[in-house]
Amino acid sequence: MDLCHVPATREKGWYLALMAPNVKGPNYAWLDPSRLYCHPQGLQDCLADLLQPFQGDPIDMVAGIDAMGFILGAAAAAVLRKGFLAIRKAGHLCVQTLTQPYTDYSGREKVMEVRTDAITPGLRILLVDQWIETGGTMRAAIQLVEQLGGVVAGVATICIEDSEGGRWIRERYKCSHCVPPGLQPRFDRHQ
């Protein structure tokens, strides 16, 4: 799809066609949404769809998860006129942090960290990431926010796959994603 083309009819999720399949092998995600971020209308419509369920909800801050969640998270924070908090892979912050181990979508053991001075008890955080495949990364971010006394106001991501971890998150938190119900089975099977 042309990065300047905007379809005459823009149904929810039209911009998903901008994403590119993995051509590098099993150590990478099966689909790359970064091309979607290059398309001005695609990015705007993606953000509108992600944030629509949270209209009127009390949100104090948006937190994006390292690294691709920084893009959507910072954009969402700008739209909502809220501050942005980066939840990082461990070892990147030079201030006091809280850490949380997790297993990512590829089965690799990692550690995530967040600065301890950004979240105060009761602060309502919208967590944003690019994708939830197994749920391990988002679950670690949720644990960090809650350990610091913050409240997860919601979870927003391009896709939440129907995995055990994805279901765990959906059952416990208000969630928003961009995949229309009719396409969800294809995303769950990585087609």
UniProtKB/TrEMBL annotation:
Keywords: Cytoplasm, Glycosyltransferase, Membrane, Purine salvage, Transferase, Transmembrane, Transmembrane helix
Location (main, coarse): cytoplasm
One GO location term (cellular component): cytoplasm
Lineage top rank: taxon: Eukaryota
Annotated pathway: Purine metabolism; AMP biosynthesis via salvage pathway; AMP from adenine: step 1/1
Record-level Gene Ontology MF annotations: adenine phosphoribosyltransferase activity
One Pfam family from the record: Pribosyltran
Annotated compartments: Cytoplasm
Domain Phosphoribosyltransferase: 57-176
CDD domains: PRTases_typeI
Catalyzed reactions per annotation: AMP + diphosphate = 5-phospho-alpha-D-ribose 1-diphosphate + adenine
Sections of the chain in a coiled coil: none
Residue ranges of the TM segments: 61-80
Enzyme Commission code(s) on record: 2.4.2.7
Listed InterPro entries: Adenine_PRTase, PRTase-like, PRTase_dom
Biological-process GO terms, alphabetical: purine ribonucleoside salvage
Assembly behavior: Homodimer.
Family (UniProt): Belongs to the purine/pyrimidine phosphoribosyltransferase family.
Protein name: adenine phosphoribosyltransferase
Provenance organism: Todus mexicanus
Phylogenetic lineage: Eukaryota, Metazoa, Chordata, Craniata, Vertebrata
